[in-house]
Amino acid sequence: MSKGKIFKFHNDLDTDQIIASQYLLLPTIDEMKSHTFESLDPDFPDKVKPGDYVVGGENFGCGSSREQAPSVLKALGVQAVVAKSFARIFYRNSINIGLPVIVCKELPDAVETGDEMELSLTEGTASANGKMFSCTKLPEYMQRILNEGGLIASLNKEDA
Questions:
Q1: What does the angle CA 131 – CA 73 – CA 14 come to, to the nearest 5 degrees?
Q2: What's the gap between Cα 103 and its chain centre?
Q3: CB-based contacts of 35, cutoff 8 Å, min separation 6
Q4: Which of 92, 81, 97 has the alpha carbon at shortest distance from 29?
Q5: DSSP letters along 61-98, please?
Q6: Cα(124)–Cα(137) distance, rounded to whole angstroms?
Q7: What are the pLDDT digits (tens) for 90-141?
Q8: Whether pTM exceeds 0.90
Q9: Strand, helix or coil at 126?
Q10: Cα–Cα dist 92/142, whole Å
Q11: If you write DSSP's letter for every residue of 14-62 in order, what string do you get?
C-alpha cells in the first residue's frame, strides 16, 4: 500500500458520528459520503483524498449496525481504518464491503491528523513519524476478500 495522510479520531467513535442517521434517507452512498464525520469535521469529505487513512482509538465504529458507516469511508477513498480496537459489527461490515480495518494498539497514540502513514497489510506493519508499528496481520482468506472488493464480490468470483 502507498503512503497516505492520517485523519485521527477519538475513542468510542460511533457510527452516527461517521454518518448521521438523517442522511441514511439519501438514496445512494455517493450522496451520503459528503456528510461523513459532519458533526466532528464538516470539511472532512473535502479534505480526505483517495489513499488516506482514518485512525481511531478504542471501540471504533460502536453504535448501530449500519453498513453505510464503512461504506461512506470507502466511497471517499479511505485506504484503511486503523484503530486500537473496533466494535465487532463495524469490523465485520467493513470486511464485507472491502474496507480494510486494522488493529494497531500503539499507533493511534503516536500520530496526529496530518501525519503520513504507510501500511502493509501483508506484513502487518504500519510506519509513521519514523517509527514502525506492529499491527494485526490479516489471514490470507481475509486478505483475499478485501482484494476482491468485499465478501459478496469474493463469493461471486468463486461461483464464476
A1: 90
A2: 11
A3: 19, 20, 23, 45, 72
A4: 97
A5: TBS---THHHHHHHHTT--EEEES-B-HHHHHHHHHHT
A6: 4
A7: 999 999 999 999 999 999 999 999 999 999 998 999 999 999 999 999 888 8
A8: yes
A9: strand
A10: 11
A11: BHHHHS-GGGGGSS-HHHHGGGTTTTT-TTHHHH--TT-EEEE-TTBTB
How far is the first Cα of the chain from the last one, in angstroms, to the nearest whole number? 28
Q: Residue with C-alpha cell 487513512? A: 53
Torsion sign over Cα 49, 51, 52, 53: positive
**Residue with cell string 514502525:** 132
Residue with cell 509513521: 128
The amino acid sitting at 51 is G
Nearest alpha carbon to residue 97 among 35, 29, 43, 48: 29
Number of residues written out for the chain: 160
